[in-house]
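TL;DR need structure tokens for one chain.
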Amino acid sequence: MLPTYRRLLCALLLLLPATLRAQATFTPAQYEQDFDYFWTTVKRNYCYFDKKQTDWEKVRQAAEPQLKSVTTRAQFVRLLENALNELYDNHASLSTNLPDSRRLIPSATDVWGAFIEGKAVLVDIRRGLGAEQVGLRPGMEVLALNDMPIEQAIQPFIGRSLKTVDDAARQVALNLALAGDHRTPRKLTVRVGGKKQDFYPDKNGLALENIQYTGLLESKRLGTIGYVKINNSLGNNALIAAFDSALTALNDTQGLILDLRECPSGGNTTVARAIMGRFITQEQPYQRHELTAEEVEFGVERTWIELVSPRPNPYTQPLVVLVGRWTGSMPEGITIGLDGMKRATVMGTEMARLNGAIYSFRIPNSGIGFNIPAERLYRIDGLPRENYVPQVIVPPSAGGSDKTLEVALLRLRRSSKH
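>> reply
TL;DR here they are.
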């Protein structure tokens, strides 16, 4: 236990504004205390250790000698980032970053890569951003990043504590490399038609640091079909009124498309349930939760089912939900909810496959926040949310065409004739 004066100091520091705490000077001993809090909190609350190759005890052992020389906030942030990388989990993050920190996946990325038959391949490109604008397309093989062979470029992002480097760890490392950092323009060398070609997705500036939208959502009529696209605003409670207004205006359409492909930053359950509640006429379960920390500590399982209640003026015509790699976290919950309630047909590609629900914590001395998945989430029938794939797979398109939207329109127009 900390001496009384140290506990009092920690309490006083937490009362300081975050900007002042960031400027405060801490001793190596205080950084050691902070790391111990971080490490212990992750150990007790992170709920996906069973599917990782991570040796979390080894992470602490590796950090202990480094902590003795930590004297600045930046050094401590980098140490925490490296520790979180050992989880190879895109849903675990810090609330702060350095200029050379990796961009968050998927929120601040414009390409999605995977290893296919041993080759690093671009499997999807985010619509409207730098990668698409310069001509990068799905199916291109990535050979190098900023002139570094791709196998070499991913090495800094593969954990040092892993019992074995599994495919999941390599894929996360690949996407961290492709994401780039907050200050260095990327150069991707890819194979196109058997030839090497260089692309510069950040040539017009680091636009991924400041993605702008025209509004919380976009809505329109496509003939007799309604279309609503959510612009990464599922964490904004103002979306509820905007969505209600848009849906009411489209209430006489013969089918509706709900586009969640530009929702990488998650959201909150209030907004999510408000949206789902407009598509049902009776209370229904939509998601199963499992809190593993209680079982780890006490040996008692804790699970519960979350319900959605219907809201006034429900939309009862056929519904198609569009999803993709930049459908992350809460929109994934909306998707498995509407699917589980058999209220929608889901089309597109795999989603971001983010693990569970995140809980947020704050380190005592430095005040640095971090987020980790602490609840497992499941579709109502028990399918893990991160394992869900759309009912109708539509390969990604880029360069102006939108095959997924075309397929959705065709399906709804056909159903409206019957």
